[in-house]
Amino acid sequence: VVVIATSYDYDSADKLTVTAGTTALTAGDHTAADANFSAKDTAWKFYTIEYDVTTTGEQTITFTGTTRAIYVKSITLTGTASQGGTDEPGPGPEPSDADATLSFADTANRTEVSAQVQVWQQNNVTITVSKGGSNQDINEEYFNPLRIYQSNTVKIEYTSAMTKLVFHCATYQDKDYPGALQTSLSSVSGITVTVDGLDVTVTFGTAAASLDFTASAQIRLESIDVYAGGGTTTPKTDAEKLDDAKAALKLSKTSLDAVDDEVALPATQGEASVSYELEEATDLVKIEGGKLIVLKLPETDTEITIIATLTVGQESDTVELKVTIVAAEPEITGDLLYTLTTATEQGTSNSYTSNCDIEVGGVTWNLEGNSQINPWRLGGKSGNCVATDRKLTSKTTFGGTVQSLAITFGTATITVNSVTFNVFTSDPTADDATPSFTKTVKFTASGTVNVAAPAGGWKDCYYQLVFNLTSTNSSTNQYVQISTIAFYGELPAHVHQYVYTHNEGAWTHTGTCSVPDCDKPTITEKCTPELNHCEDCNHTYSALEIVTQLYTLTGGQTMPGTYSLQGEVTKIDTAYDSTYQNVTFTITVEEKTVQCFREKSSYSSTVKVGDVVTVEGVLTCYGNSATKEFNANCKIVALEPAAAAASVAPVAMLPGKQF
After folding, report:
1. pTM
2. Which helix (H) or strand (E) covers residue 411, if one does?
3. What is the percent of the chain where pLDDT is above 90?
């Protein structure tokens, strides 16, 4: 916080006071304690300081060591100010040429205040702020600056025809109050709006006695300057006032999605009084206490029509307002058929603008996003992702009839504009693909949403999620995570009884169902060994098979399952770290090197070059480099010191088995 005097030179006896201070400070740097920050006026929420000017020229006080906001109520100069060392008074602040000013510095100009409305008057300028469609009541504590909340209605009036208004906005943290005011005024016809710093200037095409608008976001004002055209305007008729009110009447929400959810029904709009009734009787909602309140949720999205009757004097007319009551979330029915989980499986793409196929549980999915981070991410930067669709699509089907599903989202650092769930009966990637079912689902970060199938369910179908996203960061990828999609319904006519055969030379096995008339007699799946052994096809991978497969991986790919390899330590890449209790070293297996990254075990502090070790963990190709390695937290389960290890040959290890 800087208090600075730049316009005058002061004599040493002069004094600059920030009322009503308790601590006199000299020029220079000061800490929070120097300014006696404990002296806080709870009504005004101002901290106060006092400043003695002891030298001539520009004087500055800088406060450091505090992150709290400091509000200055007023500055009073005492003593004789001089400019250029003379006794003549300086020029002082340039006077405003406005015809009238309305200030919100204190409550002296406020003539009316309630939970519904507040009125301020000064110099024949009147501003009326009505609650309108806001969920926030008018608060009499908020002035200096005046606070206008989202959906408040505002009317500014002057006794002469106005040609220009200058709004002086307040500042707080990084809030853009001038931008909020400019947006609020964008729908008003017959004016032009410009912004210069904290000042918003409204120029009238035709001089007018009033200006009406609805706040699109919170606005804070210090004062308003009014410039008049030198005449009076013809007051609007009641019919004209009614037309203005009808055009401005809006609800703050147009959809409600929970029991007891509500939207305010403003009792006034401009100069019109407003009453409300439902077009048709319904047990879904009620009008009570100036609000539309949800009593229960329907089975399908239902639009409610409200008839608003507006009255100004003897003039009256109606407006229809629409509110959608969102359907209740369906219950999950049926047995679990299939679950897509993105917690462990990875694809080949780490770009947010490209796509790749990933097989999970026998179903192939295509992701437009980063599948090398778990859970998978969709998104991008502001240069490539503004109101942009990113998709997750199944490319193969699975057995059973789907009756319902549960979609679980992860965290989100990006703006999620919408999420749409689609179902296709044929190839969803075809140019002419059209979904047979589509539904916009509610997105909640780290939340779950359920979807119910229509009668008969979905059989042998393809499924798709479409995220419409907007990034606000030009340098860092923003994203939303998709965690799981669980499908429930009626199981296939029989339980598959697959007998699996290992496919030599491949990391897969083929299952053949022995049940007659099976709808899926054969399937091919990836082997997922546990410490080199695949239980499904009863194949144990050798060290040569493992390292050969490892060396086919490209950046970021990971081998499914876990592995155990024995080899000689040929290099200590990173010495043992006693804080994290891990070490990084390289072993040689079948004449190929495998790095053991941040290995952690009881052997970590003693392993050395020449030792023969058996290491267990997950194998991967790190990032975009060519490093083939065991992932972090791999562990040594056996170690033969260098002196005794000369004749040991590398083998793939399987606990509990002899080789």
Report:
1. 0.42
2. strand 401-412
3. 63
